[in-house]
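Design request, tokens follow.
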């Protein structure tokens, strides 16, 4: 079961972040506002936080936000790719 965490979105830095102890788990993206395309290109979870479902929560938050914005989504991050095919 995943712990309840606060996900922070930093649009200026194009990332979603979860603070985990003194480290950060993150989902990074690049956005082309003209074509309205978003590319999720990296997920990172510190070793001390792996296995807690943090990457999944970040990806779900990112996809949910992108859908609400009407962005066309793609993923060059292999972890994110299956979420877009579901």
């Amino acid at each position: 079961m995943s712990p309840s965490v606060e996900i922070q979105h930093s649009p200026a830095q194009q990332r979603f972040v979860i603070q985990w102890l003194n480290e950060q788990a993150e989902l990074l993206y690049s956005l082309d506002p003209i074509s309205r395309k978003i590319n999720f290109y990296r997920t990172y979870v510190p070793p001390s936080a792996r296995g807690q479902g943090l990457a999944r929560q970040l990806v779900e938050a990112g996809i949910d936000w992108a859908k609400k914005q009407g962005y066309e989504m793609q993923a060059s991050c292999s972890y994110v790719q299956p979420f877009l095919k579901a």
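Comment from the thread starter after seeing the answer: thanks! The mean pLDDT is 94.
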